[in-house]
Amino acid sequence: MEALKPPLEPQTRTPRFPPSAAQAEFAGEPLKLSRTAQNIRESIRADFHLAPVPDEDIYEASEGRVLTRVHSYRERDRAIVKRKKKSHLKKFGRLQCEACDFDFLEQYGERGEGFIECHHTKPVSDLQPGEKTKLSELVLLCANCHRMVHAARPWWTMEQLRKALEH
Ligand SMILES: [Zn+2]
Ligand SMILES: [Zn+2]
Fold first, then answer.
1. Measured distance CA(39)–CA(45) in Å, rounded
2. What is the mean pLDDT of residues 16-38?
3. Least confident residue range of 64-73, 112-121, 130-139
4. What are the structural domain ranges in the chain?
5. Of 163, 150, 68, 162, which Cα lies nearest the Cα of 117?
6. Interval between CA 82 and ligand 2 midpoint (Å)
7. 150: helix, coil or strand?
């Protein structure tokens, strides 16, 4: 009796290199790929800037828009965020939320390692032009606590955030 042949593999060529993230994401989904490409083309045509989208959950009063942008910009300063995390890690041995103690590594494992947000506590309006951010003005917050701080104006101080968590 003839042995059953295995079904033909759709992909018979062995790729020479591991697939890139995009290739892996769109593998076997040519429709999804073309739709995505189409969306990108349309966005560019509509003069949509592919800059980071501002956080929709950060409430901005019209007069506060500039301050919010400066605040976000400062919190995204990678060099200072890196220094803050490093100094915190040295001091506490882990990167926990300074308000609720949430620890991304503990909760999510390896993927959460080094993951925490940085909040700038000094109001931008109190900053002098060109003033550098000091490490002492930054606090590490989990994503939830950070969002709650910025969910309404005026933004919560750390005292207000901690108070809200006490129940
Ligand atoms: Zn937290
Ligand atoms: Zn913040």
1. 10
2. 69
3. 64-73
4. 62-165
5. 150
6. 16
7. helix
Residue position matching structure tokens 């701080």? 149
Q: What's the longest Cα–Cα distance across the chain?
A: 87
Apex 50 CA angle, 45 and 73, nearest 5: 150
Q: Which two tokens stand for residue 14?
A: 């062995």
Model confidence pLDDT, tens digit, residues 45-59: 554 444 444 454 455
> How close is the Cα of 124 to the center of ligand 1, in Å?
22
Q: In sequence order, what are the beta bridge partners of 117?
A: 141
Give the Å distance between the CA of 143 and the centre of ligand 1.
7
Alpha-carbon distance of 75 to 137, in angstroms, equals: 11
Instruction: Find the 150 Cα to ligand 2 centroid distance in Å.
Output: 6
- Higher pLDDT pick, 3 / 123: 123
Strand partners, 123: none
Q: Give the closest residue to 118 by CA, choosing from 76, 147, 159, 79.
A: 76
Task: Check residues 114 and 59 and name the one with the higher pLDDT.
Answer: 114
**What average pLDDT does the structure give for the chain?**
78
Point out the ligand nearest to the CA of residue 155. Answer: 2
Å from CA of 143 to ligand 2 middle:
10
Q: How far is the CA of 48 from the centre of ligand 2 (A)?
A: 26
Q: Which of 154, 151, 164, 167 is nearest to 99 (CA)?
A: 164
